[in-house]
Amino acid sequence: MEQIKAYKKIELLKILFVFFKMNLKSMLEYKFDRFFIALAIFVREMVSIVVMFLILTRFVTIGGWTMHEMFFLYSFLFLSYSIFVFFFTGIRDFDDMVYQGTLDRYLIRPLGLMFQVVAARVDFAAILGHGTVGILLFTYSCKAVGIVWDFKSVTYYISALIGGAIIQAALFMISSCFSFWTIRTVNLRNLIFFNCRRFAGYPISFYPGLVQKLLIFVVPFAFVSYFPAQYFIRKPDLDMFWNGYLYLTPLVGAAMFVLVYIFWRAGLKRYSSAGN
Amino acid sequence: MAYRADYYAGLINTLILIFVNIAIWKAIYGEDGSYDGVQLKIVLTYIVLGFLMQSFFIMDDYFIQNKITNGLISTDLLKPISFRLLVFSYSIGASGFKIIMNLVPAIIISLLFFEFLPPFSVSMFILFILSLCLGYLVLYCLNFIVWLTAFWFYQTFSLVTIKDALIAVLSGALIPLWFMPTWLYNFIKLTPFDSIYYIPITIYLGQTPSNEIMTCLLKQVLWIVLLTVIGHFIWKAATKKLVVQGG
């Protein structure tokens, strides 16, 4: 049998672009509606920010953290989440693909499966909503927390954001992989993910030791927001933790990604369609 | 118990929210436990109570919208029972279920693990229950108006989400209103929002002077009447407007 020729990188990029254009078009079909969805997501995410703002105008600091520092920490969550959604919406919605049988369609196409899952969907409303909050917080706080932008800090900042996005993608992927074994985990995953995200919006030093360990070793959200932010602001409560954590975000991201990929391969072997 | 996972998710969600917020308020107050004369214990009770109330104040925001998009509303309107009564009983029923299944375990766990002041006095507790019911009705009337927009928009996700955000910030569900800037506090006093969470909780805590309680309750009743009237007119307009898709 004739071996199917592997695609060249440039061709893959072209396909990626086609998918992207398709998504953009399908969004613009209902631009009014989509704009309001993005606005609603923005307003929903702003609730926690407004509450934080109101508390801090009254109390000035929380556990030694000022408003600028808190917002800087929070901006990591929003920016890395919108990067994650920008590249990996497909991973977020992977459960749906399995249950609706879209995955079967992908399986018979002569293209890498992971590539298709990642390329097929882009949720612009979520990117806009979360991204705007993140950029707002970042521009408001980055001057005040006194970051010196040199080569080293810019490299760190970018790698921390990407690492954070990959950590979140991996968390979603782990839960999605269970759908290969027809175990539905969406509710459990949303519960764990969004609640941990809530924890990570504040410095983890506020919480009891057990919760801190959970956020470092089990659901590593501490590497998405707390440690990257601490790299720049160095509040004294960092003494509670090992200093090396500051540099681990990309490593944790990479390690989780490898782990998840192995899990995904195992699941795919086991997969038999939802069928009817 | 077909949706056991959802049930546990709701319960655990409430408990985690309470837990996070307690940690934050403890960090705000630091060691000495008092700020501006307001004791930490009072704030913590306020926060716990707020989340316990939220656990059964959540209503199905898409009930009417779903009825419209799948066309069932046309048969519902023909039935010899008022559609508005149907929606109302549905909401009450769902909340009743949540009180038994979510609230009771959450209260038990809160009493065991979180610092939680008892009600100020027995009479205050009775007034609190009364005010709580009124608060629920204010929220329902407000929700009903937003739900009715489904007759015009078909997809109400955006409006519902924005409404939820406004209520979360302005009703005092997440932060005691007395911590807000004065101008904002005075503004909220003119809106129905503080009737939902703030008034019941302050009555429970004994923060409302007893001669003002009647005014507060009256204010809640007034908002219920006003919002019901507004809802009535929008309902009249909506039923005239109704277009059911398909045959």
Automatic annotation (TrEMBL), chain A:
It comes from the Bacteria. The chain crosses the membrane at residues 35-59, 71-91, 156-181, 214-233, 245-264. The keyword Transmembrane applies. The keyword Transmembrane applies. Keywords: Membrane, Transmembrane, Transmembrane helix. This is ABC-2 type transport system permease protein.
TrEMBL record, chain B:
Keywords: Membrane, Transmembrane, Transmembrane helix. It comes from the Bacteria. The chain crosses the membrane at residues 7-28, 40-64, 85-114, 120-153, 165-185, 217-235. Pfam families: ABC2_membrane_6 (PF06182). This is ABC-2 type transport system permease protein. InterPro entries: ABC-2_transporter-like.
